[in-house]
């Protein structure tokens, strides 16, 4: 990576410095210009800019991940043992959304300097200066307290314990675990699994061993895909932005993804055979296609957020819907 492309500030169309060899400083990005205009202008404009920056910090495009809370009730074909099930699940989704937002704030604060040098992350509100460090810390606390308050509204202490564990994991990941090769993959996958476990606890549905195994393997697959895409996009500068990537070679990540994909499908197939349902057995086929398609897309066109592929690629979405239809067929 050269770090400079044609059209970059201070360079001509061919990426060549202007006459005299003097490189002009890069102009502020649109986000910074808007933020400055808001701060210098009318208070209402300032408030709107800040509110928008806060919203962006919560990563709205990542919110669909919190629907994993519904995985256990979906697998069980039930929203719970009593009439509170839908309400408790809604509270659980909201609690994890707020908890994740708190984690994003902590993560952005911990990686402030690295994010400012990252080609994409430098546009995040904290890295770009739209939000101050103090505002980021306040938001992290407010979101965490809101998440715990929503969790407390779910009967029993089980869900609150799971959510507290998620918050603790998020802080540990941002401050230390993300720099440990292997451990950071497990921590990233655990964040997905805790959402599914939280949904099971909120609905008072005991998760089966097969359910936890398939969720864990699938989450590890997504985590490995994220790192593979990140390494491909950043190239030789990958380790500067995420030190753990220095320990992952392309071949290792490719092998890991292949093993995890096979293990996920085999675990799901074993579960389907155990249910004795032909529909569940049939649902293995669209699942296999979806995972193969996901893996191929990550390898062919790596993107910053690989989770987006699950909702944006038409073929992948079609396979997911076919799987869901076959999975739910025995319950209808």
Ends apart, CA distance between termini: 54 Å
For the biggest sheet, the summary is:
none
Approximately how much helix is present in the residues?
Answer: 55-70%
CATH architecture of the largest domain: Orthogonal Bundle
> What's the count of strands?
0
Kindly give the count of domains: 2
Low-confidence stretches: 1-31, 33-40
Element order: H for helix, E for strand: HHHHHHHHHHHHHHHH
CATH topology of the largest domain: Tetracycline Repressor, domain 2
Q: Give the strand content.
A: under 5%
Shape: globular
Mean pLDDT metric: 84
Query: Please, what is the CATH homologous superfamily of the largest domain?
Result: UbiA prenyltransferase
- Would you tell me the structural class of the helices and strands? mainly alpha
Helix run count: 16
CA-based gyration radius: 22 Å
CATH hierarchy class name of the largest domain: Mainly Alpha
Subcellular location: Membrane
EC number: 2.4.2.45
GO molecular function, one term: transferase activity, transferring alkyl or aryl (other than methyl) groups
Keywords: Glycosyltransferase, Membrane, Transferase, Transmembrane, Transmembrane helix
